[in-house]
Amino acid sequence: MDLPVVDLAPYLQIAGDAAPADAEEAVRALCATVSGSLRDTGALLVKDPRCSAADNDRFLDVVESYFARSAESKRLQERPHLHYQVGVTPEGVEVPRSLVDGEMQERIKSMPDEFQPDTPKGPDPKWRYMWRVGPRPSNTRFKELNSEPVIPDGLPEWKETMDSWGAKMISAIEVVAEMAAIGFGLSKDAFTSLMKEGPHLLAPTGSDLERHGSEGTVFAGFHYDLNFLTIHGRSRFPGLNIWLRNGKKMDVKVPVGCLLIQSGKQLEWLTGGECLAGMHEVVVTKRTLEAIALAKEQNRSLWRVSSTLFSHIASDATLKPLGHFSEATNAPNYPPISAGEYVEQELSAINLKGKVAL
Ligand SMILES: O=C(O)CCC(=O)C(=O)O
Ligand SMILES: [Fe+2]
């Protein structure tokens, strides 16, 4: 089974009023593909004419040069007191949910062997940089989640590159969020109205394949994303596995020029569990090894950089099943909670806010 690739251009055209009336039916079908794929696979591939492969490359180049710095110099951008929600998170800090969540461990044990995730033995060996994208609320109960950005020195192109790639990815997410809302039978702005001034984070991971490049190394242990929708551009090194709703594991191939979308826990909340957060992991696979060999041959960086962006529901907005989802069978499992409070609980569980006992 392949993930569908949805071209966002027809929807953008309709939104711009440049399309003939009969195009509307086709766009409705596309919206149903978006919501259906998020529900059944937790993921979706999209093509957005506004996000080019060249933009993605420019972003990867800048972030590769940052991660190539020494650990001490990168640690100047570390902000543990802000729960690592801005600046750098060193390797060995973030704990995969599957390491600390007993219920998830039981679920893993019940999976057939062929679909079981690789077992992480400790915190993730990946670094990460969190770069805040979009306007921040002037007044919020969750100041740490909405902090000033941290800018690394000595990289004059950093701010512009991160802001511009971040803004493009957010535009793509907003279209997907509108299409998903239509597909789910909600009003078009049901999700996007809650995303306004959300703590959206461009959050590339950086994994040193020179030091951790052996097959089976787990960069990001089995987990779900705690945010609304995650979007990734193409990484130069594969390794992302996702689990479909039917329990099957799939290694994701993102075609050139495409973006990968994944459903996060806040979407699960808003749909009363009809659309579950997509489980995934990042491990060194045979395909990663092939990409490492090619990069060595071509003298390219061996830092695996992901172009991950976490879009969020605004911290002060309430998470609860929307519209007809309040009648969903599992809706009672998703009681109202402010998005900020929910995020803080999740950050504690994965060692980014306070410490967890391992
Ligand atoms: O490194 C990646 O490709 C994605 C990592 C991931 O799943 C995450 O950052 O939540
Ligand atoms: Fe993730």
Automatic annotation (TrEMBL):
UniProt superkingdom: Eukaryota
Protein name: Uncharacterized protein
Organism field: Avena sativa
Taxonomic placement: Eukaryota, Viridiplantae, Streptophyta, Embryophyta, Tracheophyta
